[in-house]
Design a protein that fits this description.
The protein is of the alpha/beta class. 37% of the residues lie in helices and 28% in strands. The strands form two sheets. Strands 6-7-8-3-9-10 form a six-stranded mixed beta sheet, sandwiched between helices. Strands 2-1-4-5 form a four-stranded antiparallel beta sheet, covered by helices on one side.
Length: 258
């Protein structure tokens, strides 16, 4: 008898999620279960709710005026599913475990090393030796160590755009998140830098659960394990890899819903 196939475990369960700003619906009736199927990529027209969806997963929407919400979000953050609105976790700890990288690199106005060391010191309380070890580890993880090891005291703003974005990613990884949220992480980069980020994400998907917004359908097909198609604040389709590898099928769906 052949062994039963192991079903991918869910890491995100959303029930009846509605998000409004100043009374205007931005996300509507979101019901979704995401499993470990590689990188989840959100696609959709501008204003379809992609970034708001992403920010809902670490409660970042709460920073914006006029925000209100209802529904439930459960994430696998410590071995079991937790409702992020009812958990005992502080919001700062939630955002450590659900790290986010933004569209444009947002390096801190300090040195390359301090971009990693400051968050580590503030959030984890690690001693200096442990911080230095973690610094090397994460810069190697994003393939930046060999490029910056001799200029760690240089201001991070002196790095290229692609290097800055990898440094931002390293800063998030230093805090050992369970889930990575990426809001169009290559939108402000040139073709070569974008390609390096894509290659990096394909490596990282084996160690982290990644949910990314992409402005490029070609990019989505290259890196996604599953694609969420959004329109007017709703999820119209959840496509698995065998579905969107057929480019004609994906194009037809996008023409219909975007």
């Amino acid at each position: 008898m052949e062994p039963a196939l192991t079903q991918p475990k869910p890491f995100c369960i959303i029930k009846n999620l509605h998000i409004l700003f100043h009374g205007k619906p931005v996300l509507q009736d979101i019901n979704l279960t995401l499993t470990d199927c590689g990188i989840t990529v959100l696609v959709g027209a501008s204003g379809s709710g992609k970034t708001t969806f992403l920010r809902a997963l670490n409660r970042l929407n709460e920073y914006y005026p006029g925000y209100s919400a209802s529904g439930q979000i459960e994430l696998a953050l410590s071995g079991t599913m937790e409702n992020i609105y009812q958990t005992d976790l502080q919001v700062t700890e939630l955002r450590r475990r659900v790290g986010m990288v933004f569209q444009s690199p947002n390096v801190l106005p300090v040195s390359i090393a301090q971009n990693i060391n400051l968050p580590l010191k503030l959030v984890t309380g690690l001693d200096r030796k442990k911080r230095e070890e973690r610094l090397v580890e994460v810069l190697q993880e994003v393939h930046l160590w060999n490029e910056v090891k001799d200029r760690l005291k240089t201001k991070a703003s002196h790095l290229s755009g692609g290097q800055q974005q990898r440094l931002c990613l390293a800063r998030v990884l230093a805090l050992q998140p369970k889930i990575l949220l990426l809001d169009e992480p290559t939108a402000s980069l040139d073709f070569k830098a974008s390609g390096r980020i894509e290659e990096l994400l394909l490596e990282l998907q084996h160690r982290y659960r990644i949910i990314a917004v992409s402005h490029s359908l070609r990019q989505a097909r290259r890196i996604a394990g599953q694609i969420l198609v959004m329109k007017e604040g709703r999820i119209e389709h959840l496509l698995k890899k065998d579905q969107f590898e057929n480019s004609e099928m994906l194009q037809q769906l996008l023409e219909e819903f975007l």
